[in-house]
Amino acid sequence: MAAVVIEENQQTRRSPWTGHASREELAHWQQITEGVAAVLSADVLERDRRNADPQAEVELLRSSGLFNLIIPTAWGGGGGHWESALHAVRILARTDASIAQILAYHYANLGAVVFYGDAQVQERLLRRSAQSGWSWGDSVNPVDPNLELVPAGDGYRLDGVKHFSTGASVGDAILVNAAVTAGPDQGKFLALALEHDRAGISFLGDWDALGQRLSASGSVKYDGVAVTSTDIIGEVGEEPFSSLVTPYIQLAFGNLYLGIAQGALERGRQITLARKNSWFLSSAETYAQDPLTQRVYGELASRVAAVEALADRTNERFDAAIADGGQLTVEARADIEIEIARLKVVSTEVGVEVANRIFEVTGSSSAKTEVGLDIFWRNVRTHTLHDPVDYKKVEVGAHFLLGEVQPISLYT
Hints:
Blueprint: H1 2-11, H2 23-41, H3 44-50, H4 55-64, H5 82-93, H6 97-116, H7 119-132, E1 136-139, E2 147-152, E3 155-162, E4 173-180, E5 189-195, E6 201-203, E7 220-227, E8 232-235, H8 245-274, H9 291-322, H10 330-357, H11 374-383, H12 389-402
Parallel strand pairs: 1-4, 2-4
Antiparallel strand pairs: 2-3, 3-7, 4-5, 5-8, 6-7
Helix pairs in contact: 2-4, 2-5, 5-6, 5-8, 5-9, 6-8, 8-9, 8-10, 8-11, 9-10, 10-11, 10-12
């Protein structure tokens, strides 16, 4: 009977987001995000090499208001749409993809409060988040063994380790997914909101990757952490609206990879224009005037523009889907999932290609550490391994040929 009640409640839930971002809204958040990116650009290479938790960068995001962008104005937030949030992720990725990733996951975790929580939980947590400008990290990685919740007194005890907990070590709040392993609620999968300094939580600081070095994606250990009823957001399920969290994060990835490609292309352009000579076999005076150089840039710029057009369309469509709330149908959820999977495929391939081939037109000197052109390739190469893009191709192909849709998961 409880499952039926949950289903009925989900169907009647209203989304706090309606309509679409206006040009004025997009321009407003673009200006703010570009200001943040300008600050980050001053020492992006130095910070990347230092590989420390991005505490100062998180404070910059907080002071800019970007953390509150999608929180409704009625709850003290910025009242922006998801299209504006995704555009902000893309803009930051042109300069610092690690910080863009933290922001992208922050929005996913805020969204999860709405997807899994009832109206009272939503207002309580998002109002508190807006008032303090909270940063939200997470411990959700579905390929790890589940974190375990065991009944203890009036609540639970949380135990386990989660790897790839992006933003958790620098977050004010942590979104945690955990399985109840005993008691009357055994088998339920719950979403929790825990504060950073809760007793029993330790951050292992073991994130040491080729790229995305400042994404604060290290492991978190939970050792007998006390969980009360007020920490529980709700039950994680497969209802269309609540499961939009996965298409969103895949859409954020598409914008992240696009932003990295745009950043690499612009940095390459700067380097090429600064070169005063040309290859000795060329009849052109400078590399920028060489038709072979122009051909590569023309190819890469055209592909980036195509991905941008698809991303813009998909970002806007996501706002339409999320506005349906509990009325979102299985079919509509599948449509936006496939659209996003298409973007994931092309943004991955174009992002990696641009970040790699940009070296062909900037020359051997661009491989120097001090130039820093490698940061784009390292970042996009690292993050595109998050989940295999070949499975996204299969997802799109199976739907195109047979109308099949993959089972709902934290990857589809």
